[in-house]
Amino acid sequence: MTAPLAWDDFRLVKAISDQRGLTQAAERLGINHSTAFRRLGQIEASLRTPLFERHRTGYVPTPAAEEMVRIAARMEEDVLAFTRRIESCGLTPAGELRVTTAASLLTGLLTPILAEFCARCPEVRLDVVVSEQALNLAKRDADVALRATNDPPDTLVGRRLATIAWALYGRADLDRSVPLDAQRWVSPAPRLGAAAAARYVQERTAPERVILRLDTVQGLADAVESGIGIGPLPCVIGDPRPGLVRLSEPEPELAAGLWLLTHPDLRRAARVRAFLDFVGDALTRQRDLIEGGRPGG
């Protein structure tokens, strides 16, 4: 008779399948390699069937393992959904709140607001995850996201706070007698998620005039201010820098919505609701700056 499997058995098999190896799976689960190896052997012995084919490129799941992975994914989502529902019943803003945003939004806009929020809600502990990539709120990679996007996921709820304006910037001492297309340029890297801004540069100058590409907006602003070249920046980043000047009006093709988002199951949790209300109102008061209404800072 086959011994009953535990939830941890499904988690281990899913981790090995996701990571395509024992070592990475063990690190993800916080156990050592020998423990993972022994447990996998015990599961396979209990089921009397192999779960992975061992190849030089990694562990490849057998059909039995693929079925365990599907079950584990459903179980994981059920646990997360239950946790979100329980957390939504809290009445007082307290506990850990994981927030994700891009570095440029954190440094240029959000940090002073977070300081005010922490003073207002001292029982909430913020864990800020800085990432240019969108994290998965459904899997609790974060509880709240502040994102620049024109297409927020249908699975999330929240508010569009403003439209992030972009314009072309250069140093204040730039030689204006040189046409823009003949200037040296810096460009966002397409992998930054700023494909429209990268296209904007490509359409306005020759490839050999692009001296530098960067995968952070903050780095792009530093490069323009250092005199490496001119380039597109969000007005909320470019306008407050006294060493920069706008070389264009806000470019409609580069505009993106600024969204404050959370998972539907969490929106009634006291700490999430308090954060959404406070930060949303604070950012709305800065809409003029975000939308490019205050050139020069």
Overall description:
The protein is of the alpha/beta class and 297 residues long. It has 10 helices and 12 strands. It has helices spanning 7-19, 22-29, 33-47, 63-87, 103-120, 195-202, 217-225, 235-238, 270-284, 287-290, and strands at 52-55, 58-61, 95-101, 124-130, 144-148, 157-164, 166-171, 185-188, 210-214, 231-234, 244-246, 256-262. Strands 4-3-5-12-6 form a 5-stranded mixed sheet, covered by helices on one side. Helix 1 crosses helix 4 (63-87). It is globular, with a radius of gyration of 24 Å. The protein starts with 6 loop residues before the first helix and ends in a 7-residue tail after the last helix. The mean pLDDT is 87.
Features:
three-stranded antiparallel beta sheet, 40% helix, 297 residues, five-stranded mixed beta sheet, globular, alpha/beta, 12 strands
